[in-house]
Amino acid sequence: RITQTNPTRLPSPPRPASRHPSSPNRRRKAAHSIPAMDLSHAPWQLTEDEAADRIASMRKQEDGPYRTGDYMARFERALAAEERDSTSHPFAAGQQQQQRNPCRAFPNPLPQSLPVDAECRSKMVTWSYRVADYCKFSRDTAAHAASLLDRYLDSESQRDR
Questions:
Q1: Which of 57, 80, 105 lies at the terminal end of a domain, its last residue?
Q2: Which of 6, 87, 95, 106 holds its CA 20 to 30 A away from the CA of 16?
Q3: pLDDT, tens digit, for every residue of 6-32?
Q4: CB proximity list for 20: less than 8 A, separation 6 or greater
């Protein structure tokens, strides 16, 4: 049978699927909806000129108030000067081993212990890398900790100058 359509009446749009929780045709929303990001202009991406400017600024800061010195070399020079001074006295030769106190040249919270030297520092950094590897931390964390230790020890040695 042929049906005639009324040309003045448009067909009605299809009805949307029911969104009732018991409906099998309901659409499910994603549990976590993450909006799309346009990474072409991300704030952490710098042009070459911006990166060069930032590096120049960081270097300027390092040469200024954040400048660090070589605390181990200062300690060794102070220790050598103390040894020279103690050997110049005639009665100091026999007492040199007993009275030699390198901690007077380098402040240390534990006066009976020697300060950090190159070998000790190397062992500490190697140990901290092993700990970082074992804990699956970034080795950058261990390197940053060593840098902070160096800055602290340098500030202690500069404080008593």
A1: 105
A2: 6
A3: 555 555 666 655 555 555 555 555 555
A4: 26
